[in-house]
Design brief:
alpha/beta; TIM Barrel; 3 domains; eight-stranded mixed β-barrel; 18 helices; 50% helix
Length: 431
């Protein structure tokens, strides 16, 4: 990954932008960076979505996996330099970036030069020297403090609360103490175990919350699909049964909201059609059945919303779908668009808050898709396993699973593009 990150970030210096912490903060010209240590071996970092109170992906937490803990200090420094550079690219895109890294590294000019204004930094392993903190803030960076007695904490731009053995309840109690002591200080919670805890944290006043997107307590009974989701399932099944395109177009025209969304999508820069499209029939003819199926799958996720973090879950599902499709193309799969559907539906149970088997019951899916989604078996299961490991700690497993798709660097590059595409499509769904 170091070679890929070096090619992506190493040749460019960050351009200071307006600081997020305060309009009064000014960023001066960055000093020439000292040479960063050379990369000794590839590794991968974790990219964990941070959810805001509107339930959307507001940014990402970037951290090194626990498997790197035993490496030498200079090897770890290489990885931290790359991690800060990756976070900076995200910050340039207008999203929040949170990086946890050793306090000693923050005094290095080479690392400071890679950090982009607005990036949130959490020093670990000791206090930050006042002059280092002042220089970082001068560059527009945000310095956080870990949880503890608010009265004893130094000046901070945010406080980081971790979900530990006490669980979500203890975290919310700490958040309340900080709210009372420093009401304007953003409170960021990380390490939450599942999406239900993320939503509880946001409802409890947390500014940003991140953790695992798995389910908490499973519902005992399946909830019925909403009418809009039923209509989209029927359309997807029409495509799966190879029904006439005119019949599909007529069914789309019968839904005003769906027709509007299709025309907006067909005319968007993401599609890039040379001429405007003003009828549903024309849109479907130009898009084709494969692209129409992809769009309907995306609309199904949108129609399945209804929980606080629905927007974040939808964007996460879109990124997984796009990643799996890109990997399927690399592997020469004859139906790569089917892997897009698999990645998308792998989050469907979280959106509907019901067992996955019940959630996809009404869909006519290929046997390979059902086996991968429900039993994590069959030829397509490896795609879902790789998507899961991508945000985990097992570097060796990630390397092994990435090998058939071009290696770790190739998979990480595809994941970066997938998140960018998902953000664009999620933006088209608003309104």
């Amino acid at each position: 990954m170091m070679q890929w990150l070096a090619s992506l970030f190493g040749a460019r210096k960050p351009t200071p932008v307006a600081a997020a912490r305060s309009p009064a903060v000014q960023t001066g010209p960055a000093p020439q960076p000292a040479a960063a240590p050379a990369a000794a071996e590839p590794a991968f970092g974790q990219r964990i979505p941070l959810i805001d109170r509107a339930g959307r992906v507001a940014g990402f937490e970037w951290r090194l996996p626990a498997s790197l803990a035993g490496r030498g200090s200079e090897v770890l420094a290489v990885h931290h330099h790359a991690l800060v550079a990756a976070a900076g690219l995200c910050a340039r895109g207008g999203r929040q970036s949170l990086v946890l890294l050793p306090a000693a590294l923050l005094s290095r000019p080479s690392l400071q030069a890679r950090a982009v204004a607005g990036t949130m930094l959490l020093p670990e392993g000791g206090p930050l020297a006042p002059e280092v903190a002042a220089e970082l803030r001068r560059r527009g960076l945000l310095i956080g403090v870990p949880d503890g007695p608010p009265a004893q904490a130094p000046e901070a731009d945010f406080v980081l609360l971790r979900a530990a053995a006490g669980g979500i309840d203890t975290l919310l109690l700490s958040a309340q103490l900080w709210l009372e002591a420093r009401p304007r200080l953003p409170r960021i919670a990380v390490g939450l175990e599942h999406i239900d805890d993320i939503e509880r944290a946001l409802a409890g006043g947390i500014t940003l919350a991140g953790g695992q997107f798995g389910a908490g307590e499973r519902p005992r009974a399946a909830r019925p699909l909403q009418a809009a989701a039923h209509r989209i399932c029927a359309l997807l099944n029409d495509l799966a049964l190879d029904r006439d395109t005119a019949q599909v177009a007529e069914a789309v025209r019968g839904d005003v909201a769906l027709s509007y969304r299709l025309l907006r999508y067909a005319n968007s820069p993401a599609i890039g059609l040379p001429n405007g499209v003003d009828t549903v029939e024309h849109a479907i003819a130009l898009l084709g059945r494969v692209e129409l199926g992809r769009w309907l799958s995306v609309m199904l996720m949108s129609a399945a919303g209804g929980r606080q973090a629905s927007a974040a879950l939808q964007e996460h599902a879109l990124a997984r779908g796009r990643l799996l499709e890109a990997l399927a193309l690399r592997a020469g799969e004859p139906r790569p668009q089917s892997l897009f559907t698999v990645g998308l539906l792998s989050q469907f149970d979280l959106l509907l808050q019901m067992p996955l088997a019940a959630a996809i019951e009404s869909l006519r899916l290929p046997d390979e898709a059902r086996a991968a989604l429900l039993q994590r078996s069959g030829p397509w299961a490896v795609y879902l396993e790789l998507a899961d490991v991508l945000s985990g700690d097992d570097e060796a497993l990630f390397e092994a699973l990435s090998e058939p798709f071009g290696g770790m660097e190739a998979v990480l590059a595809e994941a970066e593009k997938a998140w960018g595409w998902a953000a664009e499509v999620a933006g088209l769904q608003k309104g």
